Amino acid sequence: KKETISGFNEYIQSLRGKRTGKMPFTLTRFNSNGVRTRHFDDINEVKELTGKDYLPEAATPLLDAIGKTIRDVERELAEKKPNPAVLFIIMTDGIENQSREFSSGAVFSLVKEKEADGWQFVYLGAKQDAYLMAGVIGINKGNAMNYKVGNMRGVFTSLVGATANLQASASTGAVYQTGDFIKNYIGAEKAKELNK
User: What's the pLDDT tens digit per position in 49-104?
Assistant: First the structure.
């Protein structure tokens, strides 16, 4: 828990220094008590996580968290023209076991629909087969990575560079491929290190 909190806070602080222009940010937290999503118009508005607001508990409504967040981000972007690039990172150390609203098939369809709109989905999983779960919900294997829970800081550090690089290329109008995020932005060797 402490490593996740400190890693997330360092991720946010680092992104603030590396961003090019405005960077909207959405954070979804989920556990057996439900799914909670917060939208921020800019990364500067994101508050640091604390032990009071990060409470990993019991069950994992993963599909509901993904489905609801996709729909929430859609609503946030509905008025924005042109549509901004979306990097949708799913990070979990639990497997689906409590969703009530979204099935894996429904999430698969949403992911494919949004990929067609240019969204980039990344699935990072600990204590599970992240490649298998990513495939079940429509995310390309090249956008999935396993990690060890003890390497949370390393995962967040890798994501800083990846996120900043992706945002910089999107701000120049570059088109990026939606199937090789890990190789292109984190690196295959670094991904292996994070799973040791």
Answer: 998 888 777 789 999 999 999 999 999 998 877 777 889 999 998 899 999 999 99
**Prior bond to 84 cis, omega within 30?**
no
Would the CA dihedral through 96, 101, 30, 13 be positive or negative?
positive
Whether 73 contacts 26, CB under 8 Å: yes
- E strand spans, the chain: 25-31, 34-40, 87-92, 120-125, 144-146
* Both tokens assigned to 165: 């690089």
- What is the 8-class DSSP label of residue 32? T
The structure tokens listed for 157 are 């550090």
* φ and ψ of 71, to 5 deg: -65, -40
Structure tokens at 67: 């489905």
pTM to 2 decimal places: 0.90
**What CA–CA distance (Å, rounded) separates 56 from 94?**
10
Q: Find out whether 114 and 88 touch, Cβ atoms under 8 Å.
A: yes
